[in-house]
């Protein structure tokens, strides 16, 4: 085993020293630190450290990406320093941490699983507007009414969706949580109210009635309070009657409490946020839009944008439109402008190819992480261009009070959602953001040093040249280009070249004959070295380390010899999806620098043991 002491020392120095580490654990590729004082974290020093692939900061967690040798580095750190080792991210999320960071983590865990549903419903709503406005669909017809019900359902019953998702985030019973909020939408309860603000009695106590359909904040506050109540009841109620007594008392206490106190307070807060945003848009819309357009990318990089998502959803539910999302779109199109500017300016063919490949996901799907981490952050000056372009475009959108009718990812494919009375201003704003950023990226330029292929004398000598190494598909599924994977460590090829698969079943087979060199204890990832010395990483899903091995079953052990086609891992695909995780599975050749090229399959879908990748040395 290699000596990792110098690397371990450099990493601990880079995170502020042993005394600055609150806790540490590792997944398949990265060390994950929780730090006491984030200001002591030296990102630049760590990124320049030999043995560190890249560094990612997210939601108060500091990730140092090592690659295949992460376990060795982790063990070396353990042997050299007295640092608390956590078994998982849940264990590191202690209550004594930064309350603001915890809040953003919670917002992320609540909204991330339901964002695709919101986006899909919002786009359907937007398409109905187009059909009735331009294609003569009658709003009285049954076709419209059925599709309208499909698009409106999630928004009408949004408190129920939020309650279910919030319950998981707060670690409480999801079905009781659902019932608590369902009571406030039940016809007998809603029938008590003739007008918002009507007062009724409950056990001689006054209750102010509110409409809760489409609200955001009441459900989150109610389930947060319920999580404490449930823990209290579970502590003191005997096991003999706990099965029915805890749910019964939970409903008995929480429904009146939510209807009488939490709900009205939540509605008031939601209305206040909406009024505040309307005020800012009305009095200083240009400044508000400029700040959002310039700063949104940084909020996303730090994971704190989730704190603003409830405000957007609250706007949509209370007014039917939102003024925050259009300036956000300008930040997205500014990053797309970076990619286009780099494509025009770059001399290196590989960099040009990278720029155009990351441009398409941005303008068609609103996915900008590959641009942010692979171009803007890496070359620095393009990020300055994006800030200026996003600021100008966002400022124009804000000044014209540009609106959107649904929560969608800003992209060309989601233009229908912006087809309100301000649509033309939206088009002008994103055009400004894109063109200004592209032009500034071209004018400011960037340092391409290190992007050129090494000269022959710099290339590493190969002790055992291998002309061709074929990697078969470890599973059946749909092909996903690596630059579209929603994790910058994979999408920017920091771990190596490869491809990703959206699996159709829950089985992973060996793509090569060789040895299991790394098998993470949670079963979510496996590293193999083929008989031809090709190193392969199969990472099942994104962030699935957080499942702590739940839904995964391994059929091999580390250091086992395996044959091509041998079953390695089984996983419960549907339950992992239900838990809110992205199941996209990257398949990476981690020593791809040892090869002249890595050729990807041209198929849109693959079956297990189809040819997936071919690594060649010319």
From TrEMBL:
Bilayer topology annotation: Multi-pass membrane protein
Domain spans labelled PTS EIIC type-1: 105-460
Keyword Membrane belongs to the record: yes
Transmembrane segments: 110-135, 205-229, 249-273, 285-308, 358-377, 383-411, 423-445
Keywords: Cell membrane, Kinase, Membrane, Phosphotransferase system, Sugar transport, Transferase, Transmembrane, Transmembrane helix, Transport
Entry-linked InterPro entries: Dup_hybrid_motif, Glu_permease_IIB, PTrfase_EIIB_Cys, PTS_EIIA_1_perm, PTS_EIIC, PTS_EIIC_1, PTS_IIABC_b_glu, PTS_IIB_1
Subcellular location: Cell membrane
NCBIfam families linked to this entry: PTBA, PTS-II-ABC-beta
Protein name, UniProt field: PTS beta-glucoside transporter subunit EIIBCA
Originating species: Robertmurraya siralis
Encoding gene, per UniProt annotation: arbF_2
């Amino acid at each position: 085993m290699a000596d990792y002491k110098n690397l371990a020392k450099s990493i601990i120095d880079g995170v502020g020293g042993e005394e600055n580490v609150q806790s540490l654990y590792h997944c398949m590729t990265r060390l994950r630190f929780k730090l006491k004082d984030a200001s002591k974290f030296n990102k630049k020093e760590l990124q320049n450290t030999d043995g560190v692939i890249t560094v990612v900061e997210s939601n108060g967690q500091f990730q140092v990406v090592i690659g295949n040798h992460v376990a060795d580095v982790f063990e070396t750190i353990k042997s050299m320093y007295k640092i608390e080792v956590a078994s998982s991210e849940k264990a590191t999320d202690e209550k004594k941490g930064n309350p603001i960071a915890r809040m953003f983590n919670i917002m992320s865990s609540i909204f991330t699983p339901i964002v695709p549903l919101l986006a899909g419903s919002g786009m359907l709503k937007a398409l109905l507007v187009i059909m009735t406005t331009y294609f003569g669909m009658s709003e009285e017809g049954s076709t419209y009414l059925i599709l309208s019900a499909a698009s409106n359902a999630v928004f009408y019953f949004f408190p129920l969706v939020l309650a279910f998702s919030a319950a998981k985030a707060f670690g409480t019973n999801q079905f009781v949580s659902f019932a608590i909020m369902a009571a406030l939408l039940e016809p007998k309860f809603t029938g008590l109210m003739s007008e918002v603000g009507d007062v009724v009695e409950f056990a001689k106590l006054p209750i102010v009635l509110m409409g809760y359909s489409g609200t955001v904040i009441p459900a989150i506050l109610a389930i947060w309070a319920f999580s404490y109540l449930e823990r209290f009841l579970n502590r003191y109620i005997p096991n003999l009657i706990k099965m029915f007594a805890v749910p019964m008392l939970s409903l008995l206490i929480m429904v009146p409490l939510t209807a009488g106190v939490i709900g009205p307070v939540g509605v008031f807060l939601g209305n206040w946020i909406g009024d505040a945003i309307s005020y800012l848009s009305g009095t200083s819309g240009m400044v508000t839009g400029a700040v959002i357009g310039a700063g949104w990318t940084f909020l996303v990089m730090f994971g704190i944008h989730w704190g603003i998502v409830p405000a957007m959803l609250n706007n949509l539910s209370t007014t039917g439109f939102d003024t925050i999302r259009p300036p956000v779109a300008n930040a997205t199109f500014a990053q797309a402008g970076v990619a286009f500017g780099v494509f025009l300016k770059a001399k290196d063919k590989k960099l040009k190819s990278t720029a155009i490949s990351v441009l398409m996901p941005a303008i068609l799907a609103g996915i900008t992480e590959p641009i942010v981490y692979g171009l803007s952050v890496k070359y620095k000056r393009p990020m300055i261009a994006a800030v200026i372009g996003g600021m100008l475009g966002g400022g124009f959108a804000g000044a014209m009070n540009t609106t959107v009718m649904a929560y969608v990812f800003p992209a060309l494919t989601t233009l229908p959602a912006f087809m309100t009375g301000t649509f033309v201003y939206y088009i002008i704003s994103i055009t400004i953001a894109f063109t200004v950023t592209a032009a500034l990226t071209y004018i400011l330029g960037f340092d391409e040093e290190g992007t050129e292929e090494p000269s022959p004398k710099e290339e590493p000598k190969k002790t055992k040249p291998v002309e061709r190494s074929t990697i078969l598909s470890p599973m059946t599924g749909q092909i996903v280009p690596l630059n579209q994977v929603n994790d910058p460590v994979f999408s920017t090829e920091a771990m190596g070249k490869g491809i990703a698969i959206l699996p159709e079943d829950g089985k992973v087979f060996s793509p090569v004959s060789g040895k299991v060199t790394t098998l993470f204890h949670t079963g979510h990832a496996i590293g193999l070295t083929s008989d031809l010395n090709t190193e392969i990483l199969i990472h099942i899903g994104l962030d699935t380390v957080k499942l702590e091995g739940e839904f995964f079953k391994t059929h091999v052990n580390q250091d086992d010899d395996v044959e091509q086609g041998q079953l390695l891992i089984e996983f419960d695909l549907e339950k992992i999806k239900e838990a809110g995780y992205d199941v996209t599975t990257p398949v990476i050749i981690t020593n791809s620098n040892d090869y002249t090229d890595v050729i990807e399959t041209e198929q849109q879908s693959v079956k297990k043991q189809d040819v997936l990748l071919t690594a060649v040395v010319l």
